[in-house]
Design goal:
The chain is of the alpha/beta class. It contains 20 helices and 13 strands. The strands form 2 sheets. A 7-stranded parallel sheet has the order 3-2-1-4-5-6-7, with helices on both faces. A 6-stranded parallel sheet has the order 10-9-8-11-12-13, sandwiched between helices. Helix 14 links the parallel strand 9 and strand 10. The two termini are about 30 Å apart.
Length: about 475
């Protein structure tokens, strides 16, 4: 799908008619304020591209450091050149940028806490931008990350401003954490949600303090935007909708947001990443993609066990072995993880170790990719499901344990690598090899693959013309451009 043509088909009436929307657009502008963490930056940049494609001015605003990061890693440079997208560099507050701490008592990336706390100081520049834009337009719409509600609180002081919260986590996780009407969940808790992981060990007290800081200002939002889809999370989107509607607030599920940019990179790039060329030589659905996102740190012993487990499985794999991001990815040295001596030479016939940034959506969408060993960050879950690729779930922190439960126990589109209650133990090579074989070469794996392929097909249809996610996007555009 080409985002520049997202609103051309008039077949859906007022919600999708280009003329009916664009006749109002000049009087509405959008300010997008992401949280300074890679997955959050990326999701809101994708949403910005979709909104800007409707001829609506969008102001994407974050620190200079994190804006550079978001643009560098974005997989659709053509979309970033849309004249309706305006980038704003907030002054970057000083913060320490220490390296990751693999031996920490929790896998939560506490080394990023200084950059998280620095984001609180963006309230003043955010307010200044808000006043500037609101003075020049009929209505200013602020879309902010859940973790930036404090920063955009001044939206409440302007008569022509309104705000919407963007939820960068699954509707499942959001529902369990934040909905007040627990009666809605009683049947689910008694049946479907037995064995759901606790939140113990998912984060730190310091991070929870930052979350608590947002609560007083979340009520300012007129609604919530989910990067999710009814075909994946219909039950939990519906529960959230019922509660929010009771408060005269609306919900839109416009995801997955990763659906329309992967082909663009091939058009603008002179060369494809080496891992894609390697995948071209493999048979369909034979390769396991292994990646744990941008915030995971593993101790040396765990890296060694993972290396041996992949080798023992004898299944083809691409392993993205990168250090976790620092608060400022452009400063200091990056640790290079050590593999067992001679490892890459031993596995070269069936395995590829990659240490740089890769086009994940293209890898998952490649015909040779047959599985994804993942930390179960929400972005990765969505991308894998959309591409019809089953997951080997190995959660590390934050919302990941509950995303993994959603994937393995509810949707049944993945298998578990390690139980959350055993998170402090080293997962040995034999357990890793068993999980790989279960996913890639077992009856359970075949059934899992069939389910995720069906769900992926439904999800791709949802973001195409006439699909539910596309109509949800049109509904949001119509809502913010109303007279």
């Amino acid at each position: 799908m080409d985002a520049t043509n997202i609103n051309q088909d008039p077949s859906h009436g007022a919600l999708s008619s280009g003329l009916s929307v664009r006749s109002k657009n000049a009087q509405v502008e959008v300010i997008v304020v992401p949280f300074p963490l890679q997955s959050h930056l990326d999701q809101l940049l994708r949403l910005s591209c979709l909104i800007a494609a409707h001829n609506i001015p969008v102001h994407y605003a974050t620190t200079a450091t994190h804006l550079r990061q978001a643009k560098l890693r974005f997989d659709s440079q053509t979309h970033l050149q849309n004249s309706n997208i305006h980038f704003h560099e907030f002054p970057t507050p000083h913060f320490l940028s220490p390296p990751p701490i693999p031996n920490s008592s929790t896998k939560f990336p506490s080394h990023l806490q200084p950059s998280f706390e620095a984001s609180v100081h963006l309230r003043e520049p955010a307010a200044a931008l808000l006043r500037e834009v609101s003075a020049a337009t009929r209505r200013v719409v602020v879309i902010h990350d859940f973790l930036m509600a404090y920063v955009v609180q001044d939206v409440g002081s302007l008569p022509n401003a309104e705000s919407y919260m963007f939820c960068a986590v699954s509707a499942f996780h959001y529902s369990l954490r934040f909905l007040k009407d627990q009666n809605s969940f009683q049947v689910l808790l008694d049946q479907e949600l037995k064995g759901i992981p606790s939140l113990e060990g998912c984060s730190t007290p310091e991070f929870q303090n930052l979350v608590s800081l947002q609560y007083d200002f979340l009520s300012l939002a007129a609604g919530i935007i989910f990067n999710s889809c009814w075909s994946i999370e219909g039950t939990y989107i519906d529960l959230s909708t019922k509660e929010m509607n009771s408060k005269n607030k609306q919900i839109w599920a416009v995801g997955p947001l990763n659906h329309d940019t992967k082909s663009d990179r091939r058009e603008i790039s002179n060369s494809r990443h080496k891992c894609l060329e390697w995948l071209d030589k493999q048979v369909p659905k034979s390769v396991l993609y292994v990646s744990f996102g941008t915030t995971t740190s593993m101790v040396d012993e765990q890296i060694k066990e993972l290396a041996m487990g992949l080798e023992q499985s004898k299944h083809k794999f691409i392993w993205i072995l990168r250090d976790a991001d620092k608060g400022d990815i452009f400063t200091g040295d990056v640790k290079r993880a050590q593999l067992p001596e001679g490892y890459e030479e031993r596995v070269k016939e069936f395995g590829l170790v990659v240490r740089d940034w890769v086009p994940q959506v293209e890898i998952l969408g490649h015909p040779s990719t047959g599985g994804f060993m993942s930390h179960c960050g929400w972005n990765s879950c969505l991308e894998s499901i959309t591409m019809g690729v089953p997951l080997a779930a190995w959660p590390m922190h934050s919302d990941q344990p509950r995303n993994a439960f959603l994937v393995t126990d509810i949707l049944k589109v993945g298998v578990a690598v390690n139980a959350w209650e055993k998170r402090e133990e080293i997962v040995n090579s034999s357990a890793i090899a068993r999980a790989v074989k279960s996913l890639m070469a077992s009856k359970e794996g075949e059934e899992t693959r069939k389910r995720v392929e069906e769900m992926g097909s439904a999800t791709q249809q949802a973001v195409e013309e006439g699909g539910i996610s596309r109509l949800e996007l049109y509904s949001f555009i119509a809502h913010i451009t109303r007279e």
